[in-house]
Amino acid sequence: MDLSCGWNSAAAADQEEIRRGPWTVEEDAVLAGHVAAHGEGRWNEVARAAGLRRTGKSCRLRWLNYLRPDVRRGDFSPQEQLLILELHFRWGNRWSKIAQHMPGRTDNEIKNYWRTRVQKHAKQLGVDVASARFRDVMRHLWMPRLVERIHAAAAAAAATTTEHATPVDVCHSPDPSTTTSCTAGTSSSTSTSMSVPHNHHLTAMTTSVAEAAADWSGSEQCGSASGGISDDMFEGSWSELLARAYGDDGADSSLLPDMHMAAETGEGWWSFEDIWSQQQY
DNA sequence: AAAACTCTCAACCGCAGGTGG
DNA sequence: ACCACCTGCGGTTGAGAGTTT
């Protein structure tokens, strides 16, 4: 198998040349096999011992972002998107820290999501992604919108379940007090009804957020939340929104702005005018 | 059909912090 | 205390896929 792939002609003249660029299937197999046999860590040694002409850093990155068995791929669910926004509110560009609370997701993926999706739309709106204005947009429009989607998905799934009496791997219990495995930061039934795609991951996520909330003490209050500190801010956003999304009292649609989606985007974004008309909260 | 453009994401880079000799 | 090496993090880049013109 030709591993030079032609992007570094000097490599042909020097067998010890460090390879760069995309990993081949063969390299992946070698690295995965070596890690399986010897475990993670000591990446420079891994690269040498496995005979990979890669840097230790490259091996580490490839393992963490791609080869790790628990790594998840594919689009972020609305729940995950909501969690990213929430955690970014708290920690800013601390991607690795955010990733710690999103099982199976890598800091690289989250960072890419933020840059390609969030920053793109901030740019479309003509506001700085770090500005208070954009944070307000996220808190009052984007996040509720995501919750709306989560609720819609949950409702649709619930309807399907009822209609077909299909067993679904959910944490939902007729009695919320029995949903021990799904208990998030709040003791209510806010983490029930995960009968939407990735439900088991949401369970993990809500638990992670609860843990994060426990960690989160004394840090600065951010955004334009209700004026409480730490836990209050947390309660007023993630937990409350999820409660509204999943609560058995039905979602309170008054929470959600009456947004008219920007027709040109067709994917749930709203116009500049819509946003500013909703700024009177 | 094809050129131009946009978007996504894997991978690289530089830097900082930790550790051991 | 200093140095060398390793690891982890956040920012950036570029190839390729997808979309538009």
TrEMBL record:
Keywords in alphabetical order: DNA-binding, Nucleus, Repeat, Transcription, Transcription regulation
Domain Myb-like: residue ranges: 15-67, 68-118
TM helices/strands, residue ranges: none
Alphabetical list of Gene3D superfamilies matching this protein: Homeodomain-like
InterPro entries: EOBI/EOBII-like_plant, Homeodomain-like_sf, Myb_dom, SANT/Myb
Location(s) in or outside the cell: Nucleus
Region described as Disordered: spans on this chain: 161-197
Residue span, HTH myb-type domain: 15-71, 72-122
Pfam families, A to Z: Myb_DNA-binding (PF00249)
Any one GO molecular function term: sequence-specific DNA binding
Start-end of Low complexity biased regions: 177-195
A single Gene Ontology CC term: nucleus
Xref: SMART domains: SANT (SM00717)
Predominant localisation class: nucleus
The protein's name in its UniProt record: Uncharacterized protein
